[in-house]
Design a protein that fits this description.
By secondary structure, the chain is mainly α. Helix content is 25%, strand content 5%. The protein has a two-stranded antiparallel sheet with strand order 1-2. The chain is globular and about 60 Å long.
Length: 110
Amino acid sequence: VARQYPMIERHGCNLRPVELMSHWGKLDLWAAPGDSELDVAYNRPSCEFQKIEREVEGARTVKSNAIGFQGESYENEEDGFRTWRNDDGSPARPEIIAPPPTTEDSSETD
């Protein structure tokens, strides 16, 4: 990730120019564990982000064609997904927990 830090930062600024462009070059990048999209969306406390350092020893030796990046784009002023985190990478908002099914819900599936 450190090898692609400038490109990822620029991509974020391009996605949200009003909020981020003036901070380009000063943004922090954080990474969630692999396959954790739902944990992130539900603010699960067990899903902590790791802060990515801008400069990592050896990152420049990695060839850019040996790594990939799949950015996303927003259409029609789409808001996009975001999450709020504390400085340690833990969720800044309470965990979202689905309500237990009611007896009516369970009788409909029987």
